[in-house]
Amino acid sequence: MAWNQPGNGNNNDRDPWKNQGGRDQGPPDLDEAVRNLLSKFGIGGSGKKGGGSSSSGGGFPSKGFGIIAVLLVVVWFIAGFYTVKEAERGVVLRFGNFHNLVESGLHWRPVFIDSVETVDVSNVRQFQSEGFMLTQDENVVHVELDVQYRIINPRDYLYAVENADNSLAQATDSALRYVVGHTTMDEVLTVGRENVRTNTLELLENIIAPYQLGIQIVDINLLPARPPEAVKDAFDDAIAAQEDEQRFIREAEAYAREVEPLARGQVRRVLQEAQAYREEQVLKAQGEVARFNELLPQYKKAPEVTRDRLYLETLEKIYANTAKVMVDVEGSNNMMYLPLDKILEQQRRNTDSAPSMSGNEGQNSTSSNSTRNNSSRQGTSTNSTGRTSDRYDGGRG
């Protein structure tokens, strides 16, 4: 049914914007609501419809402009405060140009005039460069290099080049490829890795110096290089052989360190023994000289007696060290020889061949031999004494 369809009685229509209570109220007036809001701030008219003075019209008075200006200035001033963290440094730009550097802490800048960019200058950054590279001996290896760096000049880092991190990565790749290209594959894989790292660091610092990147290289680390997969097994065998070579060298050096002190000790011992033997012989010779010097006066007084005594002493020393006995029979030209060494050897053989039967026999033979030896020695002594006495008597006569 239409809102204004007749037939409602009392000529009332169905308009929803009219109050059924009898008062005619239309939709709210948006312009009037805005004027009422502005009038609370002292801006605009009194909010009533109709005519009025010109001062209460739609214009803004000077008091309203002042309040708005003050509010804008306060907001602009508060918005200018900013904080730089402890590990950062701030780069201040004024109208897009570099103005100054600020340290960590609370600072203020004029908004819309100055802008600030912060850069972390304390923490160490890191990136990795890797790839397949050609060596001096025309082999291909896969090399990985870790680079650690720190920002020391925020201004150069931000504005000296377009992208300092990218420039550093390209310079690192160039330096690494140059060094690997002038190194053999065996050196890159094994013993020459430290030289590759050192040369790459030196060359990288020389490359980035003219660009003034504001970056300081802290350290680089060359990771273990790998040969291509097609020849990986052969290179593993070569590396194992080189490791075995180094191990054998270390073992040989350890053995040399162990044996050399012993040899030196033996040398010193032989030298000391030789020195002791030399001193012993010298002292012995000096003793013999002293003894002969003491015998010389006695020999001059009684030459024959001294000569016979020396002769007997010499024979005593000789017979004490031999198992053979010579017996000189008085009044005969024959000389008896008792081979005691042969007799003792035969007795030892009999004892070893028949230990069960040779007990008593060995004792009897030993006692008899001892008896014969004693008698022989006594005879020898007697004869020797007799001969000596006769010779002494003859000499004296």
TrEMBL record:
User: Which portions of the sequence form the region Disordered?
Assistant: 1-31, 348-397
SMART domains for the chain: PHB
Q: Which residues form the Band domain?
A: 79-239
Q: How does it assemble?
A: HflC and HflK may interact to form a multimeric complex.
Point to the regions of Low complexity compositional bias. Answer: 362-387
Per the UniProt entry, what are the Gene Ontology biological process annotations, in alphabetical order? proteolysis
Q: Does the keyword Glycosyltransferase apply?
A: no
Q: How does it sit in the membrane?
A: Single-pass membrane protein
Q: Which UniProt keywords apply?
A: Hydrolase, Membrane, Protease, Transmembrane, Transmembrane helix
A single Gene Ontology CC annotation of this entry is: membrane
Question: Can you tell me where the transmembrane regions are?
Answer: 64-84
GO MF term list: peptidase activity
**Compositional bias of kind Basic and acidic residues:** 388-397
Similarity comment: family membership: Belongs to the band 7/mec-2 family. HflK subfamily.
Q: Where would you find this protein in the cell?
A: Membrane
Main location per the UniProt record: membrane
Question: Which function does this protein serve?
Answer: HflC and HflK could encode or regulate a protease.
Looking up InterPro entries in the UniProt record yields: Band7/mec-2_domain, Band_7, Band_7/SPFH_dom_sf, HflK, Membrane_HflK_N
The organism's taxonomic lineage, starting at the top: Bacteria, Pseudomonadati, Pseudomonadota, Gammaproteobacteria, Alteromonadales
The name under which this protein is listed is Protein HflK
- CDD domains from the entry? SPFH_HflK
Task: Determine if Protease is one of this entry's keywords.
Answer: yes
